[in-house]
Structure formats: structure tokens, C-alpha cells
Specification:
Length: about 425
């Protein structure tokens, strides 16, 4: 295990997160709330900690303030260890006057921060994936094959394949071919017999492609050479990986457990609701490899006269006469009597309102933080710190696929209603 001492992790925070809009209006993708109390960034950081990798950089360039706060308040290692989690926002310098132009360019621009760390192996991760992995197995594969680069791959279905980088390997697992998001005939040419990776014949028919998970282990010296080979190469999938396959030992590490790329509203919505199912594909109830997040020291939730099933309720909530099915109810949520919530994500709030503030809201005709009486909410995502009045209907009865509400008070994406952070929805509104 001594050879893992010089391993450092770099988590890519992603770009503007336009596919997760409007959840990314005021925050970066890794800071988007998950499962009622976590954030997306907690997943790769927790995987690192559970794998004994505690030197971690997070690269961001868009809306990084909330991510900075979360990391600063959450991940504090002992002063007697060398562990840290540090956010590196894009910097404009004399040598690098531009923002990050892609995944590889982001790593290229941060290399100067690694000079004094004696790194020999770099683990490069994504900040918007939901999965649980022991990276020690990933690193073991890398070292045992004496690889220059190792790519974690997952078998995938034909209807998913064109959204990923696909690859082929020889019998020993060395990658021989890579295609970034191929379409049509190019896609068909990337079919492989996945039985050689331990899948059954039936599973191989269902999942005949090997998709890159977008996470890599690099020999640090080889990575430096690749990044310096051509300054115009800015993306790992399109340029760095194909070049590495041509001349280096690039190996595949097969991952057969649950993995979800939470890059779109639908993927985010479905992954969250699955967490509340009786047997979720991703399970937070794992004592061997827990997912860590900020300790908030909130009181237990109070639940009065409620009918709640197949749902997750976070700490600090006050629920009075609420009916909820297949839903996530986030931190400090306050939901009043007669409200019905189905297949929805309620992200909760960042603070409690005092009795005095609630009285002022009533005087000013402003809904309290939370959800008022007798509301119907279905297939919706309610972002943090929203104020939803009484008798509100969020149902999308017309089945609208995509729409921007007036003054940005709501959005519909892929048929899912989204109420953005701090929005106010007046009494009696129907969407």
C-alpha cells in the first residue's frame, strides 16, 4: 500500500452545467443538492476518503461560492495528517490568460499547484456522478498492469452508448480503440463481446458496449508529456485519450456496480427518487463506505398527522398533515396541512424562520419559507428557500415538455416542473 502514498485526486467540477439549469443558476454542478441533505461533490470525495486517498483538489470555474462554503465547513482533516480538500477555481495568469477550455485544459492549468507534492499518480474524477467505488481496486489494476493510463469502464446498453466515449480492448484488457460519442455506423463498430469481462451471455446481449466513466488514473510523468504534446488539446475524451492509446499502455478497469451520470434534469430527478425506493440502486445506508456531508446539528424532524411512504425525510423538518409518496423532503422543510406531494424533490431550506419573521410575512402577504396549506405537487423539483403559498397546484396537467415561466418563477424541463431557488409562488397559482 506504500505506493499509494503519492496518489492525488483531482475532481473536475464541470462547466456551466447548462443541462442542469436552473439548478445551476447560483451554484456549480458539484454543489447541487442530492438526497435531501448531501451535495453531488460529497460522492467522489467520500469515495476518496473511503479509499484512503485524502489529498484532493476540486476544479471549478462557474458559481463556486456555495461549493467553497460547503467544502470549507465539511472536510477538515486532522492537523497531524497531510489530508485536504481544496477548491481550485479557474485563474487567469500570464501563462494561462483563458478560462478552462475543457477537462484536459483544466488539469493542465492546475499542474503548477502540484509541483511541491511529489505526485507520481493522479486520479482524475468527475464531480457529477453517483456511484460507490473503492479506488484502491482501480489503482491496483493500474499498478499491476504497469499502465501509463487506466480508464474505468462500464458495460452499457445501445440506447445509452452514443452519449459516452466507447472503447475496445484486447484479451488482456489493454485498450486498442476509443471513439468519443460515436453515432450510426461508427457506433455499431464499437460493439464488443462483454462476456470476456465477466458478464453472462444474456447480459452481454443487453450491454454490448464498453463506456468510459470519465474517470482515469494517470502516471503523472506520462500525463505531463501528453498535456505538453499539443497545447490545443483541451479534452481528455476527444484528444488526450486517443493519443495515449496510440503510443502508451492504456488499460481498462471494469466497474459492474451502479453508476449514473447526473448531467441532465431527468437523470438528476430519477436518481434522486430512486434513493427513496425500498431497494435503491444506490444505497446511503452503507456502514462500510458511508457518504459524508456537512454536520448541521439540526433537531429531529416533527411529523404530525402525516401519511408518508416510499420517501426520505431529512433532519429539521416540520410536517403537518402531509401526504407524500415517492419523494425526497430536504433539510428544514416546513410543509403545512392538506398538502399532497407525489414523485417530487423538495430540497428544503438553509435556515429556519422565527415566529417574528412569520408574523411579518403574514402582515406583508408573503408566503412563509416552505410549502403552504392544501397544495398539490407532482413530478416537481422545488429548489431551496422557496416560498410556496396556499392552494398551489404544480401538476403540469397539459403535459408541457419544456417552458420558461414568466419572470423566471418556474421552469419545465422534460415534463418536470422546477421551482428555482428563492422563488415565490403566490396563493392559488396553478402550473
Amino acid at each position: 500500500m506504500a505506493q499509494y502514498n503519492n496518489v492525488m485526486a483531482v475532481i473536475l467540477g464541470g462547466g456551466a452545467g447548462s443541462r442542469l439549469f436552473p439548478l445551476t443558476v447560483e451554484r456549480s454542478k458539484p454543489a447541487v443538492p442530492l438526497g435531501g441533505k448531501y451535495r453531488l461533490i460529497d460522492v467522489p470525495i467520500s469515495n476518496c476518503i473511503n479509499s484512503a486517498i485524502t489529498q484532493i483538489f476540486v476544479l471549478t470555474q462557474y458559481n463556486s461560492a456555495s461549493l467553497n462554503r460547503h467544502i470549507a465547513r465539511t472536510y477538515r482533516f486532522s492537523s497531524f495528517s497531510t489530508g485536504f480538500v481544496e477548491v481550485l477555481a479557474a485563474e487567469q495568469t500570464k501563462d494561462s490568460p483563458e478560462w478552462f477550455q475543457g477537462t484536459a485544459d483544466a488539469v493542465r492549468q492546475m499542474l503548477r499547484h502540484l509541483r511541491d507534492w511529489r505526485v507520481d499518480t493522479l486520479l482524475i474524477l468527475s464531480g457529477d456522478h453517483l456511484y460507490r467505488m473503492d479506488y484502491r481496486e482501480f489503482l491496483k489494476r493500474h499498478f499491476e498492469t504497469n499502465a501509463d493510463v487506466t480508464i474505468s469502464v462500464i458495460p452499457c446498453r445501445a440506447n445509452e452508448a452514443e452519449e459516452f466515449g466507447l472503447l475496445k480492448t484486447d484479451e488482456a484488457g489493454k485498450i486498442t480503440e476509443f471513439a468519443e460519442k460515436p453515432k450510426g455506423d461508427a457506433l455499431e463498430q464499437m460493439r464488443v463481446d462483454t462476456t470476456q469481462f465477466g458478464l453472462t451471455a444474456e447480459q452481454s446481449i443487453e450491454r454490448p458496449f464498453l463506456a468510459s466513466m470519465g474517470i482515469y488514473v494517470f502516471n503523472y510523468a506520462r500525463l505531463i508529456e501528453l498535456l505538453r504534446e499539443d497545447d490545443s488539446w483541451v479534452d481528455f475524451g476527444r484528444e488526450i485519450i486517443p493519443s495515449a492509446i496510440e503510443k502508451l499502455n492504456v488499460q481498462a478497469h471494469l466497474f459492474k456496480d451502479y453508476w449514473e451520470d447526473i448531467g441532465t434534469i431527468r437523470a438528476f430527478y430519477q436518481a434522486n427518487l430512486d434513493l427513496a425506493s425500498p431497494l435503491p440502486q444506490f444505497n446511503f445506508f452503507d456502514t462500510e463506505a458511508p457518504i459524508y456531508t456537512r454536520s448541521r446539528y439540526l433537531p429531529p424532524s416533527k411529523i404530525h398527522g402525516c401519511d408518508i411512504d416510499n420517501s426520505m425525510v431529512s433532519e429539521g423538518c416540520i410536517l403537518n398533515g402531509v401526504y407524500a409518496r415517492n419523494s425526497i423532503i430536504g433539510l428544514r422543510s416546513r410543509i403545512d396541512k392538506g398538502t399532497r406531494i407525489e414523485n417530487s424533490i423538495i430540497m428544503g431550506t438553509d435556515f429556519f424562520e422565527s415566529i417574528e419573521e412569520i408574523k411579518k410575512n403574514i402582515s406583508a402577504g408573503i408566503p412563509n419559507i416552505g410549502i403552504g396549506e392544501n397544495c398539490l405537487i407532482s413530478r416537481a423539483i422545488i429548489d431551496k428557500n422557496t416560498r410556496i403559498g396556499k392552494n398551489v397546484r404544480l401538476l403540469n396537467r397539459a403535459g408541457v415538455e419544456n417552458k420558461d415561466g414568466e419572470n423566471g418563477c418556474y421552469y419545465i424541463r422534460e415534463g418536470i416542473i422546477i421551482i428555482p431557488k428563492t422563488a415565490v409562488i403566490a396563493d392559488g397559482t396553478e402550473i
